Amino acid sequence: VTVALPQFSFDALTSDLISELILTTLTEDAAANMSDIDAAVLVERLRDPVQINEVNLQRPGAEQSSDAGTDLQALQSEGAAYILVYGFVFMLTISTMTTNGYLMQTIIEEKETRLIEILIATVRPTQLLTGKILALGTLGLMQISVWLLAAFGLIRLAINLDVAAQLLSSVYVPMHVMALVIVYFLLMYLLFAALFGMVGALSTSMQEGPQYAGVFTIPVMIPLYFTVVFIETPDALLPTIFSLIPPLSPLSMVQRLAVTNVPAWQIILSISLLVLAIIGVMWLAGRLFRVQTLLAGQRPKLREIPRLIRG
Question: Residue 214: which domain range?
Answer without folding.
Answer: 78-310
